[in-house]
Amino acid sequence: MIIARILGTVVATQKDERLSGKKLLIVRPINVDGSDTTGYVVAVDTVGAGYHERVLVVAGSSARLAQGMKDTPVDAAIVGVIDTVVVNGE
Amino acid sequence: MQLARVIGTVVATMKNESLQGRKLLVVQTLDKDLNSTGKPMVAIDAVGAGVGELVFWCRGKEASFPFKREDTPTDCTIVGIVDSEQHVTR
Asked: How much is the ipTM here?
């Protein structure tokens, strides 16, 4: 899993019917110290995350294993909102 | 699978229900000489590892296999603890 920050939202009216009702968010991978990296991923939200929050993103086929995501055509899912990250005691 | 060092912990109160009760750890991948390589990742613990320990982990869909299959959304899981650095023969 990677740590990412939510940058924005995506609205898509016409989409696979199994994606109906799912919230799509744009996330940017960040380092464990909170600094930004480059690039972005569109991920499906499974936890009710909001703008600028730090979240956990699962990529690949494992994204479908999250509750409520069975058989949906996704390869990135937000599965947690991060409270704290402690690395090397900091 | 790759060797890694557990360097930290992650706390996420709000997470996908299928992740309830799982321990989240920050792992730094190591090369064969046990030097850091690449960026740290967040992994789910399947074996009871702790900060500072040398572990090995697997990525991809197989990462969910230690748990109830088709149940836990993870693409990165700690699946073993290396007894000591002397047990890594190069």
From this structure: 0.84
